[in-house]
From TrEMBL:
It comes from Aquipuribacter hungaricus. Keywords: Cell membrane, Membrane, Transmembrane, Transmembrane helix. This is Type II secretion system F family protein. It is found in: Cell membrane. It is a multi-pass membrane protein. It comes from the Bacteria. Residues 176-299 form the Type II secretion system protein GspF domain. It holds the Pfam family T2SSF. The chain crosses the membrane at residues 6-25, 109-127, 133-151, 281-301.
Length: 311
């Protein structure tokens, strides 16, 4: 690494440190509403049940207090870039990880810092290889940070899609078990409790949450509508509508569940056929663009060589 690149990196680090120090000065730092109201709402003698344990924050207590202002500013910046918390909260509920919006924003900030570090390393390597160029190096660092923030968002989307795929795979079996339980004489709530207690998987976890909401005071229809709202699967929404209609109007529930299980199996079969068709077309790409030209070349090359020798 040349002296110019090393000096540029050290100057950038010094500038970032001075900027953090200046933005953390109480006179210039913007105080939010929570910090203003906390001294007036804080109890002088709080209960011991509401306080943290003595050793809970002993490991990173000082580090957390030092990084809290910077982390809060980073969370505000990430929210300004990626949008409000409404969509993020819904996707976190769909992922089933139990992560809050604040934790997700903090993870995005961490991923962004790692992206900045990776971008700085790439910029240093490029500068050492091709010479110092300030604007491209800064662009690489900024792009690395943005890729880190967006990468955490894409990872959340991937978690949601994988969970919904597992729920779609479990849905026909769960619907068949519910139909067997209802056909044996149990009610809708009893059948849901039996299946939720017997099965394992993402859909059974959602059924347990639905039953917990029903026990907390909501009706079964409202709890099932909450299950449909936590997912974006049309077959599950139709399942909730069918169970709600069967419970409210007294229609045969077993036949509805069997027909829905059959529909989901047919949907899975169609998706499998479509995936096979796409894979078949993808397999034609190396055949047409790699194997066929090489075959033609092997067939034509001897003739070209013989013509060249005769000429």
């Amino acid at each position: 690494m040349s002296d110019v690149v090393l000096g540029g990196l050290l100057g950038a680090a010094l500038a970032v440190g001075l900027l953090l120090v200046l933005t953390s000065v109480p006179r210039w730092r913007q105080v939010d509403l929570v910090d203003r109201l906390e001294p007036y709402l804080r109890d002088t003698r709080p209960s011991r049940l509401l306080t943290d344990l003595p050793g809970r924050r002993a490991r990173l207590g000082t580090l957390e207090r030092l990084l809290a202002p910077v982390m809060s500013d980073g969370v505000r910046w990430v929210e300004r870039i990626s949008g409000g918390p409404g969509t993020v909260r819904r996707r976190l509920e769909q992922s089933g990880t139990g992560t809050t919006v604040e934790q997700f924003r903090a993870e995005q900030v961490v991923w962004g810092v790692l992206g900045l570090a990776g971008g700085a390393g790439a910029a240093a390597a490029v500068g050492a290889a091709r010479g110092p160029a300030v604007l491209p190096m800064v662009a690489v660092v900024v792009i690395g940070g943005l890729l880190g923030v967006l990468g955490r968002d894409q990872y959340l989307s991937r978690q949601v899609s994988r969970r919904e795929e597992r729920m779609m795979q479990e849905f026909p079996t769960v619907a068949e078990l519910l139909a067997l339980s209802v056909g044996a004489g149990e009610g809708a709530v009893g059948a849901l409790e039996r299946v939720a207690r017997t099965c394992q998987g993402e859909l059974s976890v959602e059924l347990r949450r639905t039953l917990a909401a029903a026990r907390a005071g909501a009706s079964l229809v409202q709890a099932l509508e909450g299950l449909a709202a936590r997912t974006s699967l049309p077959p599950l929404a139709r399942f909730v509508d069918g169970v709600a209609v069967a419970v409210e109007r007294g229609t045969p529930l077993a036949e509805v569940l069997r027909s829905q299980a059959q529909d989901v199996r047919e949907l899975g079969r169609r998706r499998l056929m479509e995936s096979g068709g796409r894979k078949e077309i993808a397999m034609m790409v190396p055949v047409v663009f790699l194997v066929l030209p090489v075959t033609v070349l092997f067939a034509v090359y001897p003739g070209l060589v013989s013509l060249d020798l005769q000429l």
